[in-house]
Amino acid sequence: MVELLEGFVNRPMLETTAPLGGHKDWRSNLKSMPIPESVSSNSVLTEALESLIENGRINRKQALDVYQVADLNAIFSLANMVKQSRFDNQIFFNQNLHVNTTNICVLACRFCAFRKGPRHSDAYELSVEEYLHRIEPYSDKIDEVHSVGGLHPTWTIDHYQKLYSSAKKKFPHIHIKSLTAVEIKHLAKRSNLSVHETLQKLHSSGLDSIPGGGAEILVDKIRDRICRGKETSSEYLEIHREAHKLGIPTNCTMLFGTIESIEDRITHLELLRELQDETNGFQCFVPYPFLPDYTRLPEAQLATSNEILRTIAISRLMLDNIPHIKAYRMNIGDYVAQMALVSGADDIDGTVGHEEIMHSAGSTTPLDSQVDDLVNLIEDTNQCSIRRNSIYSKFEMIRPQKHEINSLPLLN
Ligand code: SF4
Known about the structure:
Order of helices and strands: EHHHHHEEHEHEHHHHEHEHEHEHHEE
Low-confidence stretches: 1-9, 405-412
Distance between the termini: 30 Å
Bound molecules: iron/sulfur cluster
Number of helices: 16
Largest sheet: 4 strands, mixed
CATH superfamily of the largest domain: Aldolase class I
Strand order of the largest sheet: 1-11-10-2
CATH architecture of the largest domain: Alpha-Beta Barrel
Structural class: alpha/beta
């Protein structure tokens, strides 16, 4: 057991100006790595490996071919080689708290178990004071609050500006990661502002970064069936493009296992990769499967653990320009998340504290993890834990006595 990291958040982290993508020369690292037999004996995977070394990426056809490879272990090995070539045996996490602002939503996406109508007995909307009150007990243990919510029928930008400026005033050390693309679109419309103006105002009130939620699958014919009325694929990309132009970092996500095809998933990854080529503003990609409890999508195909891990591994092979791939344990559970950490993912949810969206749909992942729990979970995969800040510019290696401190790739 590691010692309980009392007052952990106040301990200094190393700051670096190095790129957040790990080793810059990851392709030459990849070239010099021993190739596991499961990879070398499979022509699809050796072709993908050669392409990664030569071009840094695989194309659409190669990704589709890898999806069809039966030997799961071989796909994991290749994805893990790429992860190791970039980050060695390091896994990143942060100390965060999820606080949802409201579950009242004017939309009713069929995959969503979280939203409520305004008159529902479980509907809630946090006042600014209640929001601060939720953060208060965690404030000396976290350095990020992650806040998303429904599309509230009456709130305008004034509410969120007050929320962020009050949170910044009271907890200046806490990074605010908040609002999905559709919330931003909704807020802009309700406030008679452009997306650009909305983001500018929110940013100057204290919004530091934007999570990736709401991407679902960036194929409009699928969106029309699972989340009609939500932003279109191009609107999702445009809102993130605007954020990147304003210097606001964002994450991106993919919800899979509803009614999409493998081709749709690859289209989704291609669109994210194209935008990243243009803006370089995505920090982390978070793929997660649909959870069905209390949703209205009986025709969903659902995703097995095999499918989840295969999708995470292929994301690592496709997204050469989005540095971090997250094992979203709130959705896939701690055990599958551990497998993901040896199948291409380099990042895992933080302490989280409280989570409603996935838990409303059936997640049973324990909440309120201590740093010790996370470190144990990571070290069980024979890798080392790196605490990071929200924008991957400061790091602390946990238990450096167990690991080579100079193996931090981001300090090279
Ligand atoms: S996914 Fe978001 S936008 Fe859709 S119903 Fe749920 S809360 Fe509303």
